[in-house]
Amino acid sequence: MEATIFDEKAETALRMLLEKFWVLRSQEPQLYQMIREREKMLKRYIDDKYGFDLIVHQHFIKLEKIPVEAKSWMGIQEFQEPRDYAMFCSALAFTENRSVDEQFLLSDICEDLKDMHPGDFPLDWTNYNHRRSLVRVIKQLEKLSILAPVEGEIEHFAMNEEQEVLYETTVYARYFMRSYPKDLFEYNTVSDILAGEWERHEEDARRKRVYRKLILNPVVYREGEDDPDFAYIRNYRNRLRDDLEGHTIFRLEIFKNAAMLVADEKKQELTMFPDQKAVMDVALHISNYVRTHLENYPPDESGNIRLTRVTLEQIISEVHTLYGKGWSKQYREGSIVSTTNEIVDLLKDWEMLEEETITNAYVVKPLFGRVLGHYPKEFMDEEGQYE
Asked: Given this model, what pLDDT does residue 350 score?
């Protein structure tokens, strides 16, 4: 029976579709059924607000989430270098040419990948780094249920290129790639692919751009005085707030230079800032320190603070002196340089920091000022940090 009200289950279904690459009927039958029962309602809302395609297949359901702009954090986090992605694409081509449930050996895919690899230098399976790349790729294919291991363990291949593993392709292998409006060979750049997405959304492109930015990105920044997307958010803030808060668990916050969706309750499937990682303590303490010393680090009219590498290390050193005794051993005893490197990577991923290409200066973004942390006075007193 088709549900007609956008209820709590519809909200959950939408959230899971946004968080997951796809929902497999064989692995999550209850979630699959929940979405099927609200299919028409979800399709109508998703198409109207986001312009995403909701694909409902007898074996899976997939929401095609196309961003307005590609960001580095949108990549496959387990991959470490471009070679991983090149191998991954070649492996997808390999699996698409196999029948469902067809079995093959790891050596078969190794042989085909050497022929298909597009890099300037050929793959060499006697090279440990090349084998580690393939291990990462195969693990990702297993995680996505594109490949299913029958016998053997891929990790052993990293230590021995003669190691065999028996695999079979699944029914999902041919559905990983999305369909494009034109042949892929007609696109020259990633920007061309993203721009082509808006050819079918000309009438309501602004609204869909704004909804996509808000739901997929940690933050939407105001890009100058005449930023049309940010102007839309400001002008239609009440309508956006009512709609987003009525269909998701998120709350819309709008500031002078930034807008974002905030969750007041934790959900296991969400990636949130802060999480339970020890580095988050360091980040929150840095934010608190900068906010309490703004006279030394004045923001510009866009809310950005520019810091040199040396200045950032000095800040982290000061924060370490203040709060370091409460940090985990890694950051309590680690070097300021290594801690700074981790903080930079973390804040870049969350769009809280950018690095200028010419000057190499760090630009601390307004979102970083939205979060802060400090220990209770009682803890600081016990540690002898306060007079």
From this structure: 95
